[in-house]
Description:
The structure is a single chain. The protein has three domains: 4-278, Alpha-Beta Barrel (TIM Barrel); 299-386, no CATH class; 393-503, 2-Layer Sandwich (Double Stranded RNA Binding Domain). α1 (26-38) links the parallel β2 and β3. 48% of the residues are buried. The protein has 17 helices and 18 strands. By secondary structure, it is α/β, with parallel strands linked by helices. It has an eight-stranded parallel beta barrel, surrounded by nine helices. A three-stranded antiparallel sheet has the order 13-14-15. 3-methyl-2-oxobutanoic acid binds at residues 15, 100, 140, 142, 170, 172, 203, 205.
Amino acid sequence: xxxxxxxxxxxxxxxxxxxxxxxxxxxxxxxxxxxxxxxxxxxxxxxxxxxxxxxxxxxxxxxxxxxxxxxxxxxxxxxxxxxxxxxxxxxxxxxxxxxxxxxxxxxxxxxxxxxxxxxxxxxxxxxxxxxxxxxxxxxxxxxxxxxxxxxxxxxxxxxxxxxxxxxxxxxxxxxxxxxxxxxxxxxxxxxxxxxxxxxxxxxxxxxxxxxxxxxxxxxxxxxxxxxxxxxxxxxxxxxxxxxxxxxxxxxxxxxxxxxxxxxxxxxxxxxxxxxxxxxxxxxxxxxxxxxxxxxxxxxxxxxxxxxxxxxxxxxxxxxxxxxxxxxxxxxxxxxxxxxxxxxxxxxxxxxxxxxxxxxxxxxxxxxxxxxxxxxxxxxxxxxxxxxxxxxxxxxxxxxxxxxxxxxxxxxxxxxxxxxxxxxxxxxxxxxxxxxxxxxxxxxxxxxxxxxxxxxxxxxxxxxxxxxxxxxxxxxxxxxxxxxxxxxxxxxxxxxxxxxxxxxxxxxxxxxxxxx
Length: 515
Ligand code: KIV
Ligand code: ZN
């Protein structure tokens, strides 16, 4: 039945990063972008280049690294934003500029303080300017879900005439209901005279838990691009979850007249990568990517599934990349087997040095833990890609004493700017004592906003994956660490966070600031 292509536009690196605390470094964004490219995502929105020099650099780095997917940069309908986006996207094999301006009465009056005619004029001007950089231009009337239909029709017709090739309809505040949003898309396509010259897209927020439902209803009414994020990350309650949109369309081909070109077996890799990097754990009962998504607990269900899988399962776990805790490598596995398995997992390490570093960590881990699972490899590589060349602080040794009735104590040795320095501290628990000892040495002034531990696989020999969120002078970073010893994992995560929030050059030349 499937005829049309449904374009998947991933905005994990842009709207996803707008989730409070989900900041990612440039290298982390490149790693995620490569995983998305491998999954055959059509368009990757890599960031908002005007927002900061860091955002600009990240979009540029993704544009350099990705060749199979179109790389997109966001820009308000302002010349300076569009020029900056155009500049950042220069290295891309295929680029898109996504420009937007609000069209709802409340946004135009209260936020922009502009008349509708001025908004329309600015939108047309922005699209024409963006076409000077690329012939692939997307326009979004922000808060379209609360905009007046007549004005929406006029502005959409005008931007298509000006050269917009995609028209994206955002439900910016997640206010619409599925039947209503579907109707909106159908009406726009029917009423806008030149609608056949652009792809209609949707971008739904999840404030009422309806982002996926609204997106799918739009697809049934003619939308042929969905904007979404891995694990549904995004501003406030998030965006439509990519994995849910893709799997619904794929599973219900009896209903949908279109399909995506995605390699769904890469979904789990992307999901783990994004949750590891951002520190946003996936809830166990999350559709598709939660640990319980394919687990059958009740006896009746188990019995049914054993007799015939289809009794209770509408998809196969392996189709989305769940590899039933397969033991992949062991202590005697060589460097080639290690590299091949990483490639199978869609993990590409930037350099030979990174591969060597990851392989050394793998050998260390294999000594402690006999069975190495895919999840272990993913955590290990997340650790290896942590910009080690730029580190000014490293964990050399850690000893903790924790005993019933006694105050826990930690003795830590750090390598700081080329010198080994020891410190001891006590605390309310072994992790608290460890962080205090580290702080005695670095005196960073950071605020710890989040501390979380997840077991990577099941069993008491599992690695603990720790995320710490650190705040300093308006910047937030997530530090990660993994180890079979969760106190060591915690120390690694803290040190990783410190390296991200205070770069070496900033310590040596504080006047350089956030470059
Ligand atoms: O939610 C929204 O309206 C957006 C636009 C920039 C598309 O993120
Ligand atoms: Zn949004």
